[in-house]
UniProtKB/TrEMBL annotation:
Tree of life domain: Eukaryota
Organism: Gryllus longicercus
One matching Pfam family: Utp25_C
Name recorded for this polypeptide: U3 small nucleolar RNA-associated protein 25 homolog
Keyword annotations: Nucleus
Domain called UTP25 NTP hydrolase-like: residue spans: 282-543
Keyword Transport tagged: no
Length: 746
């Protein structure tokens, strides 16, 4: 049942089109400015002088509408014809989406999912987002199913954290705190059995306003969003009381066992309970203790949270569609949408990671999969295979094999749409509920300033952002992550079929970043990730950070008897550390190894920019060296390793990313210099153990001179703690001495 006033024709290149039904879980397109203004949302209360001329005030709603031209607002009309639409025409019809009411107990009638037989280039890494999906559907109109509004049951209760977090505007006191350049937080320390030590950072609002009288009426109260609080730790699992959608209840246990490989059936594990206690409270979380053993547990619990969030969103929208279909004005409580459709963004490093997530989504929604997953065959073909061949002779370490198991392609993106009866893969981003991508895959779409085909509007209404295996992003390109973060929640350039009468007032006000929940999972606590979590996450509900304590550090994994000397250098600030490190290296450290009798010196450099700087310096000074970095070709790598092993080159300049992606076993190291503590702590002990006699050239095997030198500054505190232990690192950073020596082994 279409609303009155909707245009039914579109002309494009003289091509005819098949009648398409609108997805009533999404807003219908508006045709004229008058109807936009008639349904203008009531914005959050602001203190204003009642005598002021309202016509002169800047209006966020009017400002937003003014950015969209008339063409963008009248794009959504289709021609009445029975012919099949072309691929390009289908992509334009972003409003033609499937109706979704998810409650198991609701009988909403039949729905047919048809897929266009001619698949486009959706998900191809080198294409723009216009080709990101090709799944097209023809659904029964849910409005025809309900005879009265009472049948549209909404099981998302008012005490659901989802409702409490997204339904209400922010009061002025809370808004003032979180908008501050340096927000003040109340810090609460907790000790939980699985997560161990964690800190909650809650916006420090002195005056807590939850209900405030408006100027309109003494009996009319505006309810504001509740302030953040420390969540209750889940001890007993009742999915209904945890506000998990009913249709997931019967699938959670089996899906969890299937994906995390527990020997006996378990609903959710102790670690999952505690993580879900935080994420279900819609607070940000930084968990730096991800391991190869608990990785699947973590992946499953955030996948469950993501699917649960989408199901609740779509349930609200569909039920509100029923209630407002005959109303001229939309009450505030029915404003349930953002400026665009995508609500969940999951960033992972490899295709295999995305494959595992989507498998979990399928096991939660359609475990028997009787044709309910659209484009599944294509998905399996593109996201499996392509595994890195692991050598049988001199096998790679276990952590390397597990990290790069499956498809290790790092350039991908895929949109998912959840309907009442199916899961659709490869949908256009503006028709997607969930987007799963690598940082590089999104970076290609977002583009750079000045590029003609760049697109980032689909990031405007992200409500849940998840980054998993985040430490690997630093090995790929951290700049891609920062670029994505800088383009989230920007004002869209086009309307994208948005029904502004249903847009939440806080979205129009530009406050979406304060409602976004960000979940960051990493195996390491690193400065770059810390900085992102501190500066880019502004959730009004607060944030939680797991405190990582290293009792011993990776230095305890060294099996050789080695003298290790740690040199501390001074830097005025973090910005001057790069130059101070280079100066200290060239003037203090390098001269100790340039003697003609000193050979087989490996210089380990974590940063590629530092690597290039040292390489250029060596060339200028005509120092004998070979080099291996992530961009080196196989032939040059083989020659460099051979020359270094035979002591035909005095120095080997070696980048950390080369070791991460290739994991060479370097032979012939007599002296080891760490230009900076390794990002990945076990690389430190791994290189020290490479210095064993069995890896030395025969003519030098009797030479007992071996040394390890490490340069560090205060800004390297987190990496240093992972190597020598938290307590020892603290003493080294605060000590009056700049040189510390350790001897490992017997």
């Amino acid at each position: 049942m279409a609303r009155k006033g909707h245009s039914k024709k579109r002309g494009k290149g003289g091509k005819s089109r098949k009648r398409k039904r609108r997805d009533d879980s999404q807003p219908a397109p508006r045709q004229d400015e008058a109807k936009f203004q008639a349904k203008k949302p009531k914005l959050a209360p602001q203190e204003q002088d009642s005598s002021s001329d309202s016509g002169e005030e800047a209006d966020p709603f009017t400002s937003l509408l003014s950015t969209f031209n008339a063409t963008a607002r009248t794009d959504n009309v289709v021609e009445t014809d029975e012919s099949e639409p072309s691929d390009s025409e289908v992509e334009v019809s972003e409003g033609d989406r499937e109706v979704s009411v998810f409650d198991q107990d609701e009988n909403l009638g039949e729905e047919d999912d048809e897929v266009n037989e001619s698949e486009g280039d959706g998900g191809d890494e080198n294409d723009s987002n216009d080709d990101a999906g090709d799944s097209n559907d023809k659904d029964e109109d849910d409005f025809d199913v309900f005879e009265n509004q009472d049948e549209a049951v909404d099981d998302v209760l008012d005490n659901d954290p989802f409702v409490k977090h997204l339904l209400y505007d922010l009061d002025e006191d809370l808004l003032e705190v979180i908008q501050s350049p340096q927000p003040q937080y109340q810090i609460v320390q907790e000790i939980w059995p699985a997560l161990e030590s964690l800190k909650f950072y809650l916006p420090d609002v002195k005056k807590k306003t939850v209900v405030k009288k408006t100027k309109m009426s003494v009996v009319d109260n505006t309810i504001f969003a509740p302030h953040g609080n420390v969540p209750s730790r889940i001890t007993y699992v009742d999915l209904a009381k945890l506000h998990v959608k009913s249709q997931l209840h019967s699938n959670v246990a089996n899906a969890n066992v299937e994906n995390i490989g527990e020997e006996k059936e378990v609903l959710i594990t102790p670690l999952q309970k505690e993580i879900f206690s935080i994420v279900n409270n819609y607070q940000d979380l930084f968990y730096p203790s991800r391991t190869l053993e608990n990785g699947e547990e973590i992946r499953f619990i955030y996948t469950l949270h993501s699917v649960n969030h989408i199901l609740k969103t779509r349930t609200k929208i569909v039920n509100h569609n029923i209630k407002v279909q005959n109303k001229d004005d939309v009450p505030d409580e029915y404003r349930d949408q953002g400026l665009v459709r995508p609500k969940v963004l999951i960033l992972v490093p490899f295709k295999d990671s995305a494959y595992r997530i989507i498998k979990m989504i399928i096991s939660l929604l359609h475990p028997k999969d009787k044709g309910h997953v659209i484009n599944k065959a294509r998905f399996i073909e593109e996201f499996t295979g392509g595994e890195i061949a692991m050598p049988f002779k001199n096998p790679r370490p276990e952590d390397y094999e597990k990290t790069f198991s499956g498809n290790a392609d790092d350039n991908f993106k895929i949109g998912l749409a959840i309907t009442r009866k199916s899961l659709k893969l490869y949908v256009d981003f503006y028709s997607a509920d969930i987007i799963i991508a690598s940082p590089l895959g999104l970076r290609v779409i977002i583009g750079a300033e000045g590029e003609a085909n760049r697109d980032y509007d689909f990031l405007a209404s992200i409500e849940v952002l998840i980054m998993d295996q985040t430490e690997i992003f630093l090995m790929q390109n951290w700049e891609h992550v920062l670029h994505i973060m800088n383009h989230i929640h920007l004002q869209p350039k086009e309307s994208h079929n948005t029904d502004f009468a249903r847009v939440r007032s806080w979205a129009i006000n530009g406050w979406t970043r304060f409602y976004r929940q960000t979940l960051v999972f990493s195996s390491l606590m690193l400065p770059e990730i810390n900085s992102l979590f501190n500066k880019k996450c502004h959730n009004f509900a607060g944030k939680a950070r797991i405190e990582k304590f290293y009792a011993k550090g990776s230095v305890c994994q060294i099996v050789l008897q080695l003298s290790q000397v740690f040199h501390r250098f001074s830097a005025i600030s973090g910005q001057t550390t790069i130059d101070a490190r280079f100066e200290f290296f060239t003037k203090k450290i390098l001269p100790q190894f340039t003697d003609s009798n000193t050979n087989s010196v490996l210089i380990y450099v974590p940063s590629y920019f530092d690597y290039v700087r040292i390489r250029n310096y060596f060339k200028r000074e005509e120092i004998s060296f070979v080099q291996i970095c992530e961009y080196s070709k196989d032939g040059k790598i083989a020659r460099a390793r051979d020359h270094f092993f035979r002591s035909e080159a005095q120095f080997l300049l070696y980048s950390e990313r080369a070791h991460f992606f290739r994991r060479f076993r370097i032979k012939g190291i007599r002296h080891l210099i760490f230009y900076q503590p390794p990002t990945i702590p076990h690389f430190y002990s791994e290189f020290c153990n490479f210095m064993a006699d069995c890896n030395q050239s025969r003519k030098l095997a009797c030479d007992s001179a071996k040394s390890v030198t490490v340069m560090y500054a205060k800004s390297d505190g987190l990496q240093l703690a992972a190597i020598v232990g938290t307590e020892r690192a603290a003493r080294m950073l605060s000590s009056d001495r700049d040189v510390h020596m350790f001897v490992s082994g017997d």
